[in-house]
Amino acid sequence: MLRELMIENFALIDQLHLEFGPGFNILTGETGAGKSIIIDTVSLLLGGRSSWEQIRAGADSARIEGVFDLGGRPEVDNLLADWGIPVGDDRLLVVSREIKKSGRSRCRMNGQTVTVLTLNEVGRLLMDIHGQHEHQSLFSAVSQREILDRFGGEQIKEEADRVAALYTKWQGIKKELASLETDEAEEQRRVELISFQLQEIEAAQLQPGEEEELSRERDILAGAERLYAYIAEAYQRFYGMDDGGSILDHLGAGVEALTKAAEVDPALKPWVETTSQVACEIEEVARELRTYRDQITFDPERLNQVEERLDAIAKLKRKYGQGIPEILDYAAKLRKELGSLGDRTERQQELVQQLAAVEAELITAVQALSVLRREAADRLEAAVMEQLHEVNMGKTVFKVALNRIPDAQKGIKLDGAEVAVGKDGVDQVEFMVAPNPGEGLRPLAKIASGGELSRLMLVLKVILAEADQIPAMVFDEIDTGIGGRTAQAVAEKLLLLGETHQVICVTHLPQIASLAHHHYYIEKKTHEERTKIKVRALDQEERVEELARMLGGAEVTTTTREHAREMLQLAAALRSEMSRT
Predict the structure, then answer these.
(1) Are 398 and 185 within 8 A, CB to CB?
(2) How far apart are CA 346 and CA 330, in angstroms?
(3) 8-state DSSP, 314
(4) What residues contact 359, with CB distance under 8 A and at least 6 apart?
(5) Which of 110, 246, 383, 544 satisfies CB 3.0 to 4.6 Å to 241 for a cystine?
(6) What is d(CA 452, CA 25) in angstroms, rounded to the nearest whole number?
(7) Residues 195-249 pLDDT 10s
(8) What does the DSSP assignment read for 154-218?
(9) Distances (CA, A) of 320 to 196, 198, 211, 215
């Protein structure tokens, strides 16, 4: 349950600290006092959508923190353990959310940063919130199916997951088949283009590194005369001058002089060795230069051949890639595509067989899911009818219709008919209601009474909370369109729910407010031209005054106070009686 709620700089709230109790909690106040703002902050703690516009004017950020008592909830423990969120011996979970003007939202659980998705996953196990306009969602066929599946429990969830997986696989095979069944003429044009490109690349017989080698050879051939002159000159200066002026001649004389000097001073011997080594290395270079010089050729014909080859490579690069490696990779892809085009018929046959097998599995799965939904629908009908008696709708008939939509083009054959199928199966769930005796069943969306819709939503919320084992529930103005004896019936239902759950409810009705275990009053005040929302827990006498205001409106009289006091006495007796039973 939600123990504490701390709010800073959210909407009209500057700072607020609320402590909720177990059982039935009520929030009341004048219209526009900001009761629903409190519910909005709880929704944010459970992973609801945030906006920078929710930040109080003049503040840079808003912060909401809630302390939840987890009690004995192994499913919550397992989920938190999966995300590495620690839970202490006190069994408390502190959830905080910060909203900044930049639009970013920061979420934490027990001090650890988490995503909004994580908040949502954990939040749905902690509380269920019914907002002011949520009853409109009951008109949606999708919402009605989700309610039925939630009520059906884990067995329906597992079968629904199986249907979704098979449907995705079935659709994937159909998509691949469709892609293979393209226009044959277009395919033939593609084959011809690929064949031409491959032939052009393969005819060139490209080799890795060939372009670099050819470029080097071209440079040498184009500069052969200059290269020969430079090498010949270097050789001559190192070794081959006839007048004894070559480097080697000078080095030889130098070595001879150093040798004689070393005979006088042995310390000079390392120099003799070094210069002798240099002379040997220069002599080796000179021999290599002579060999290189003798191999230089003047071949204009070969130069033309190299130029033509490089030009051919350049043309292929412009069409198929930045270099020879890229061109060869492209050719490999073309071969693969050509092979796949050639194998089209064989692949089509494989896919047709796969499609038939998966479709058979899908049909079996959707049939099993439909059976489970029908069984769950029967149980839901009985549960709703039983609960409707408790909110003064005992004569109402509630049914769950499971329909199928014909689809001869994209559907599956089921029970002799082609029906539409999706990831949720083939069932179109529709809640049918007959509010009064003698009236036929009609879709829920055609019920005119907001009060009937509110009570039906309350009943469904109670049933789902019990099925999901959600420990806390929030109702924002569940009393829309009801009053009198019906309001009393709804109040007693909420009180009964509070015996096993924590209930937090925003209401305008004194019948509902009088039965609460804990009553909080919300008021809007203006101080120094700033509006603030304040909330306080009411003691017994303050509850009398608030109920009197709710009963009498602007003017509170002695009569309304006495009436309020009597309502609280009757409520205390009823709470005592319920706790004993």
Answers:
(1) no
(2) 25
(3) H
(4) 170, 412
(5) 246
(6) 23
(7) 899 999 999 899 999 889 888 878 777 777 787 778 777 877 777 666 667 887 7
(8) HHHHHHHHHHHHHHHHHHHHHHHHHHHS--HHHHHHHHHHHHHHHHHHHHHT--TTHHHHHHHHH
(9) 12, 10, 15, 20
Summarised one tens digit per residue, pLDDT across range 315-361 is 999 999 889 999 999 999 988 888 777 666 777 788 889 999 999 99
Residue 243 confidence (pLDDT)? 63
Query: In the 8-state DSSP scheme, what is residue 85?
Result: -
pLDDT at 425 over 90: yes
E strand segments, 374-438 = 397-403, 412-414, 417-419, 428-434
Residue type at position 384? V
pLDDT tens sequence across 157-205: 999 999 999 999 999 999 888 877 766 567 778 888 888 999 999 998 9
CA distance 249 to 239: 8
| Single-letter code of the amino acid located at 46 | L
Q: How is residue 305 written in tokens?
A: 């051949």
Residues in Cβ contact with 135 at an 8 Å cutoff, skipping those fewer than 6 apart: 450, 453, 454, 457, 480
The answer to whether the CB of 159 falls within 8 A of the CB of 362 is: no
Going through 491-550 in order, the beta strands assigned E by DSSP cover: 502-506, 518-527, 530-537
Which one-letter amino acid corresponds to residue 133?
Answer: H
**Residue linked to tokens 């490109």:** 197
Alpha carbon distances (Å) from 337 to 182, 202, 340, 343, 479 = 15, 16, 5, 10, 66
- What pLDDT sits at residue 3? 93
Asked whether the beta carbons of 504 and 472 are under 8 A apart, the reply is yes
d(CA 224, CA 295): 11
Quick count: other Cβ atoms within 10 Å of Cβ 181?
11
